[in-house]
Design a protein that fits this description.
Two copies of one chain form a homodimer. The first copy, chain A, has 276 residues and is α/β, with parallel strands linked by helices. Chain A has one domain: TIM Barrel. Helix content of chain A is 44%, strand content 16%. In chain A, the strands form two sheets. Chain A has an eight-stranded parallel beta barrel, surrounded by six helices. A two-stranded antiparallel sheet of chain A has the order 6-7. Chain A is globular, with a radius of gyration of 18 Å.
């Protein structure tokens, strides 16, 4: 999916919501545990209940890997289910990978060939040859960690670069623009980073940002839109726990729909204010 | 396995060799392709041929994930085979993971509970709460990326920190020492980094270093030992392609043994010179 197709989906659905499929076997409703693949059954129900309200799904690989071989099956089935039934939905493999060139090439093969993801999150620490192997696929995206939503983002991401007089995350963002343009590169910026979005839009005025941290982590949707939205939206805002664990009874899917709808309605309003 | 047990293995085997199991289905001898699980069959043959010459194995998850569900099975079987047959061998899951606390906890569960790894490589970009969840397991290790072996290590790892007047990788190393001591924390330092080992030993005089990049990537074992070896060794030197793809005929396992033995003999000599 390219940038203008993504923007068209956003306009059509009046939503820039991504639903994070951080599915933990210990947190899903107990009646699902008798199913053959409880994780997949849970995801399927969430997807069927929310697909018209969001433009993307983001399974985080950690939650699947922790169940070993069975978990990897659930991940594969989940992505296939989305792509087979709702082909306009954008699938982000939240994997935070990155290794030497030879090895990153294998990860790219994993997420873009073996799995049918549209985008993968990538960690920048190992530099250019750890990122560029993911860029060799048409209409597939790298979403590079820039300024993350967690407390630990203060430890290294804001270190001041002595020669450039800017924090590390700005150097990461600027350097990566030599490797790809805004048709293949997005950045992760946490919703908890508030006013930092203003500076980020100076560095990346047209790039899409993937924004986690609304909801359980405490970020404000309105603040993100005030400082981060462009006239082509430029935002994919993720909510995981706030949507998928909205309720843990047999009505969990309906509850997830309500939680997603609440965010979608706020998003529709923000789009009306700021997007042509 | 704790630090003194690891050192004892090194003395006993006169080796600090780690064999990197970066097993690519496209590079293994063709006669194995008719086996039920060619990747596992290949690994098993390599392990049986080298286990007395090395102290560790390091499967890189990228190579397994790229084969999907089947690949994850091969990874699980490989680690189980090592642990069931050669329990003194140290197993490093080269995964380069790191995510927000809640998610890193799932990765820790993957590698230390679902899989039986002794150590996992972790990327530092997301800071403290992305690393500490891996530290909650007795005798299990975090191996943190510090100064990697690839060309891209120049892009961010050597950026000068304005307030501390030191490169980023030194800040990463120093900061991480607040989270764990040398009984749970090692660092990745590429063999290609040569003299940088001198500075690294000032920052981390007693920590083990995992050193990739000897062989195919061009690093020198002798240089690594000159600048990086402590009187308790303090080094785990990895070779992947140079050992496992030493030969692609039916004699591949014997060839891998010869390649491993060549390194082991050089290592025995270095240990004799430098370790009590």
């Amino acid at each position: 999916m390219n940038k203008s197709e993504l923007f068209n989906q956003i306009k059509k659905k009046e939503s820039f919501l991504c639903v994070g499929l951080d599915t933990d076997i210990k947190k899903i409703p107990t009646h699902l545990l008798s199913e053959e693949d409880p994780i997949f059954s849970f995801n399927k129900a969430i997807i069927d209940a929310t697909h018209d309200l969001c433009i993307a799904y983001k399974p985080n690989t950690a939650f699947y890997e922790s169940n070993g071989v069975e978990g990897w099956k659930s991940l594969e089935k989940t992505i296939n289910y989305i792509k087979d039934n709702y082909p306009d939905l954008f699938v982000i493999a939240d994997a935070k990978r990155g290794d030497i060139g030879n090895t990153s090439k294998m990860y790219a093969r994993t997420f873009f060939e073996s799995l049918r993801a549209d985008a993968v999150t990538v960690a920048p620490y190992m530099g250019e040859d750890s990122v560029t192997p993911f860029l060799g696929y048409a209409n597939k995206w790298v979403i590079l960690l820039a300024l993350t939503s967690n407390k630990g983002s203060d430890d290294f991401q804001r270190i001041l670069d002595a020669s450039e007089k800017r924090p590390l995350f700005e150097t990461v963002m600027t350097t990566a623009q030599k490797w790809a343009d805004d048709e293949q590169l997005m950045y992760v910026v946490g919703a908890t980073q508030g006013e930092a979005f203003r500076r980020i839009r100076e560095i990346a005025p047209t790039h899409f940002l993937l924004v986690p941290g609304v909801g359980a982590q405490g970020g404000s949707l309105q603040e993100v839109c005030t400082y981060g939205m462009t006239n082509q939206c430029g935002l994919i805002v993720n909510s995981s726990r706030g949507i998928i664990y909205a309720d843990q009874t047999r009505d969990f899917a309906l509850a997830s729909r309500k939680a997603a709808m609440k965010l979608q309605k706020q998003m529709a309003l923000e789009l009306l204010k700021r997007v042509d």
